[in-house]
Amino acid sequence: MSNPLLICMTPVRNEAWILHAFLKATSLWADYIIIADQGSTDGSREIALSYHKVILVENKNPNFNEAERQKMLIDKAREIEGDKILFGLDADEIFAANFKETEDWQKILNSQPGDVFWFRWAIICPDKEHYWDHQTFFPWMFHDDGKELHSSYVRNIHSMRIPYPIEEKQMYYVTDFRVLHFVSFNVKREIAKRRFYKLVDYLMNNLSIVQLSRMYTFKKSKDDLVLLPQIWIHNPNTNKFDLFEEIDLSDNDFWFDNYIIKQIESNLQKVSKIDIWDKDLLHKYNIVDQRTGLYKLIHWYLKITVNFSNNFLVKLTDKVFKKMSF
Length: 326
Description:
about 325 residues; alpha/beta; 12 helices; globular
């Protein structure tokens, strides 16, 4: 009996900074890597096509819609014949180097159609020596049964990545290895990405500005840092490449911010209400702060209370602001 095909499904939009690292690491285990490129202008498309396991599909929709792009990836994966396991990973998510040595990896290879596997991040710090220990598990692997629709927990943002069964199926939790998440490896990029998430979530889903600020504010404590095991890091001795050397942090012009600038130019009234007007954005793009005094005050309150969001008085104030449609 042959092993199932391992298919990684990854959306890409200007991910050249980490794409070589992702593709080299993922090529160690995947039979196919399906990349849905959404109009990249930084060479991501060309990088992807230089790897022989990559199948490139064009996401021609200029708008942000995670459900749509994931359906595109799943549909393309299902064009490949045979028994297959679908993995939904972003370009800044890489299996720890010790994955093949674990019992959980063997469980994945021996899984049955309909099985779902949940994974946990290790958020890699810029110092390359520590990680933030993320406790939440995410369902990113589905042993395809060829019939489950991509319809459960599907949203336009933070959407389900795999066909996820509504009825009770076999669920497994991967604890023997981690998914290395590089979202915080470039601090400025993470701040820009969170600004972007606040904006698109507000425009698409009309969430309150208080709720958005609490959801997307950058906060991590040094007390939560854990020493990074070296067996997790791909190196020339084991995998013929150095993981950190493949990551390029030189470019600080992020498409997230370019998207925001366009929205400021075309939709200022709405954008001025969201807590995205930090000094970094204003200085970087020479923007004049267009907020009213009221919104500056509310945004100031949200910033100074970021580490006290669970405080009773802060929760009560948040609730009042939400009732006032802020």
